[in-house]
Structure formats: structure tokens, C-alpha cells
Amino acid sequence: MDREQLSLIAHREHPIKSPLGDDSVQRLLERSLSPGTRRVLDLGCGTGEWLLRALTTRADVLADGVDISPGALAQAARAAEARGVRDRLRLHQSKAEDFAGAEPFDVVLSVGAAHAFGGLLPTLAAARRHLAPGGRVLVSDGFWQHPPSNEAVEMLGEFDDLATTVDKVVADGWTPIDGHVSTRQELDDYEWSTCGTLATWALEHPDDPDSATVLTTANQRRAEWLHTYRDTFGFLSLVLRRAD
């Protein structure tokens, strides 16, 4: 079973695919979708949950989602059809950095996908290429709440602390107009959900040739979280506008 299939299983009960609760997602969307918002883009949309919630919240919005995963995009299309918003959602199978929209977007989202661009600032550079004047960006990335172990850095990558992360975003020409630091509850809920959903799938499919591998993956991920990065990793979401 490849990483895409594992991810689709792991996030069945947590479709946002980031350590954010429903209330936090709704508030961040409300701050991102200004009254004049018409076009929304998600770079690295996965199964499209952010766009689906935006479309069901605002009947006047059109949305585009970009992702490399055909399975995730197919799931997004089915979900959009079920929610009655398929006619306002365009999906593009492409690397996010290669996508070229015909018009600028009022809001650009990229939540939990900074690794695909090589970090937070490259993600913002990509978002800026698609952003209309006066538009807003909703972006997220990890940070270190406490000094990490070498093992944690090797596992998750290089991050700064919270203050340094925000300082770098501001120095890059962006102005935060809202933000959210995921709570301990949100972080724990996400990890319990994804590991537990993988384990449940494996236990309910004992005859599947991938069952043992999926269960091993669930146990390994849970152990890595509890022993390596639970007490150090944080998750930051920012709503931004350009200072110029």
C-alpha cells in the first residue's frame, strides 16, 4: 500500500488533514473569506475539505483545487457532488508549483502542505503568484514549541520557534490579520484519530494482504508521536495580507 492510500485511510475521520478542530477551521475560513471574495484557490488541496467547507459556507464563491493525487481529487469530486457544490469546484491534477490560473484569486489556501514547496516562505511565494490585489492567504506550518531532539528534527524537518516563524513571515512582506496555534487537544485529537483509523482498518480487514503493514504503520506512527515529538511540535495557521 502506497503513501497516498495510507493517507486516505488515515484521514477518513479527520478530513481536514491537519491538527485543527471544526471550530478553528470555521473561524479561519471566516477571517479568510472577506465579503468580496469570489475566487478561492487551494494549493495542495488533497480531498478538498477546506474548499468544500468554503463552498457550503458561501454560495457566491467559485473554487479551484490543485493536487498531484488522483485518488484524493476523485474523492473531492464525489464529496462535492454529494454536498451539491460540484458545479462551483474545479479540480486540477498538477504539482502545486506548476499550476497556472487564468485569473488571480481573492483567497489562496495552503494548509499542511508547506513541505511540498520546501517550507513556509516558499509556500507564500507560490501563493503570492496567484493572489489578487488586496487578497488573503491562509497558510500553515509547524514550529517548535520547545527545543527538539535531533531525532525529532530528523523525523519532521527544520522549524523555528513561534516568534521567529512569525517574524520571518512579516519580514517577507506579509501582515498577519489573524492566526491560530493548535491546542494540545487539537494536536492530540489529530494523532489519535489518524493512528486509530489506520489501526481500525487493519483490524477490520485481517485477510487483506496489506493488513499487517497498515497495523505496523499505525503502531509506528503512534510511537513516534508519543516518544519523539509530542512535547515539542506545534502547528501554526496564519491569515495574511500583503503589506503593499
Automatic annotation (TrEMBL):
It holds the Pfam family Methyltransf_25. This is Class I SAM-dependent methyltransferase. Keywords: Methyltransferase, Transferase. The keyword Isomerase does not apply. It comes from Kribbella hippodromi. SUPFAM superfamilies: S-adenosyl-L-methionine-dependent methyltransferases. Residues 40-135 form the Methyltransferase domain. The lineage of its organism: Bacteria, Bacillati, Actinomycetota, Actinomycetes, Propionibacteriales. GO terms for biological process: methylation. One of its GO terms (molecular function) is methyltransferase activity.
